Amino acid sequence: MHHRISTRRGILAGTVAACVVPAALLPPLSVAPDPHPDAALLELGREMDDLVAALYSADSDEARDALCARYAAVQDQVAVLVPRTPAGLAVRLRLAWNLSTELDGTEHRFGPQPYSDDRTRLLWELIRDAERLSGIAA
């Protein structure tokens, strides 16, 4: 009679046991955070700010022309995106202000100034309201 050294069940149990890895030894799962619902608008808003800053430091007409062309393209993109959050709305309101007034570097960076007109003051109040609702530091 032939004695089996191991049974099928034994082999299967040993294989399964060898394949099971304690959870503590596994690397942690990295879960990517959900993107902000208005990520595209927020990025375009940052780009508008960067372009305005670059416009004031441009050293040639060609550089200013290129920056103005990009600024216009960014404005066109912001104009068609529908905001889903107050932060996105703030970007769109800034565009409305930009389109309704001559670009003033001081107002663009710091909001209304003592010389600002009523329309500028109102639009900046709305921008700050939207930023406050979104939790953005105004």
TrEMBL record:
<protein>
    <recommendedName>
        <fullName>Twin-arginine translocation pathway signal</fullName>
    </recommendedName>
</protein>
<keyword id="KW-0732">Signal</keyword>
<feature type="signal peptide">
    <location>
        <begin position="1"/>
        <end position="32"/>
    </location>
</feature>
